[in-house]
Q: What sequence folds into this?
């Protein structure tokens, strides 16, 4: 594969940006090579600066549920663009997207648009603190909630203890307000509430943890979170930045039939433009400025062009059988690859839910917490990643990242990708024992 133009662009970018990138996951630090510079996308395919073609399973890390450059989204963006890009005043597009969401989502009654998933989470945490008058937040090891100071925190030593920041620049005092416990561990959660009975403002969780592999939780664990929040007058925040509009229009809340107190959205909601949102019932949302004392604002919030993209994309998601089709395609894709790997006794398994999948080099039947993931196995992903790229498949450049299947991935595209993945698995696993 010729990568000369990407290489030249990357060398240039190294002069401009730390690590040559504007978001660290793009940097290819845990795989071979350097970032490919993408020139364009169409349907499920992307082309890099050298003209190499790939079937794309990264899909911009999740937002592109219709694939690249879908006509209805493009046309709606053009329509909005004709009228101007931003006014710093309300537009009908914001109402239209909000109505589309609220009419079809029984888990929130009001929402506020922001510009990213990080901003949605940051605002939701502030709202939970403002609403409850408490400070501490419980998060789970292996869940990612954007680069919010208080949530860039990993477990300290011992269960239910203070977290320690996982990034320089986060004061220890901030990290001390976050309690980090393992997923799927009811005892640790109970211990945390026993230790800080009056201090916990909220539990925040990715109900479908998909940022550190795909760690599907027992429904009973999620129900337990609801129960503990109710008992302790704490709020339950579902961070649905990935799962929202992905697992179904109403996301994980509907999938598990659990009513969270606050839900955060991002990714799909903006149709490929930078949009996030957080929502709750009317009473909780009345605490947000200007109705209430919790301040939150944004110069470009509910940007009309971004709202237009979201409207067109979410309308398409409401088509009959949209999510069933995506899920069936994904199940079939994963099953075929798993069957192939099992019949060859390769110690690798694909996990999936809805249209999210994860390639795990494991023999475990399920992975529910971060400590089940063996870091040394990521070497196999690194080998696989290079082979997939050479053979025209683009997946996120880290073994901890999930893949996404879009409505634009046809059965034929997926059959082609299955063949490539299976033969690449053989290439890397046949002579080795993982
Ligand atoms: C992507 C993601 C975020 C952060 O969203 P950005 O738009 O990247 O700021 C937060 N939470 C979850 C669950 C995510 O997947």
A:
């Amino acid at each position: 594969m010729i990568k000369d133009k990407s290489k030249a662009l990357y060398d240039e970018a190294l002069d401009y940006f730390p690590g040559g990138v504007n978001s660290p996951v793009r940097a290819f630090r845990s795989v071979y090579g350097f970032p490919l510079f993408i020139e364009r996308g169409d349907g499920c395919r992307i082309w890099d600066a050298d003209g190499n073609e790939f079937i794309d399973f990264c899909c911009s890390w999740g937002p592109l549920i219709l694939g690249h450059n879908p006509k209805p989204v493009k046309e709606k963006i053009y329509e909005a663009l004709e009228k101007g890009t931003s006014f710093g005043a309300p537009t009908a597009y914001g109402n239209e997207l909000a109505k589309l969401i609220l009419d079809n989502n029984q888990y929130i009654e009001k929402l506020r648009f922001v510009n990213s998933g990080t901003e949605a989470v940051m605002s939701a945490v502030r709202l939970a603190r403002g609403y409850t008058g408490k400070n501490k937040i419980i998060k789970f090891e292996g869940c990612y909630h954007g680069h919010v100071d208080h949530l860039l925190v990993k477990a300290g030593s011992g269960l239910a203890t203070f977290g320690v920041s996982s990034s320089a620049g986060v004061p220890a005092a901030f990290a001390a307000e976050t309690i980090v416990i393992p997923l799927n561990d009811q005892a640790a959660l109970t211990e945390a509430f026993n230790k800080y009975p009056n201090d916990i403002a909220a539990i925040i969780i990715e109900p479908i943890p998909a940022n550190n592999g795909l760690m599907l939780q027992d429904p009973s664990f999620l129900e337990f979170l609801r129960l503990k929040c109710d008992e302790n007058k704490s709020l339950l925040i579902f961070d649905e930045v990935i799962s929202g509009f992905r697992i179904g229009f109403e996301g994980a809340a509907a999938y598990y039939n659990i009513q969270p107190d606050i839900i955060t959205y991002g990714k799909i909601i903006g149709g490929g433009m930078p949009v996030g949102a957080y929502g709750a019932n009317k009473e909780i949302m009345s605490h947000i400025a200007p109705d209430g004392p919790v301040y939150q604002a944004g110069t470009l919030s509910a940007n009309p062009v971004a709202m237009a993209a979201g409207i067109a994309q979410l309308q398409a998601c409401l088509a009959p059988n949209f999510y069933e089709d995506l899920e069936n395609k994904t199940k079939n894709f994963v099953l075929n690859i798993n069957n192939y790997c099992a019949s060859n006794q390769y110690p690798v398994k694909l996990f999936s839910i809805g249209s999210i999948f994860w390639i795990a080099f494991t023999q475990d039947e399920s992975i529910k917490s971060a400590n089940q993931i063996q870091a040394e196995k990521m070497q196999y992903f690194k080998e696989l990643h290079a082979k997939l790229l050479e053979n025209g498949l683009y997946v996120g450049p880290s073994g901890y990242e999930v893949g996404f299947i879009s409505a634009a991935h046809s059965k034929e595209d997926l059959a082609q990708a299955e063949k490539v993945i299976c033969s690449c698995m053989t290439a890397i696993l046949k002579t080795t024992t993982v």
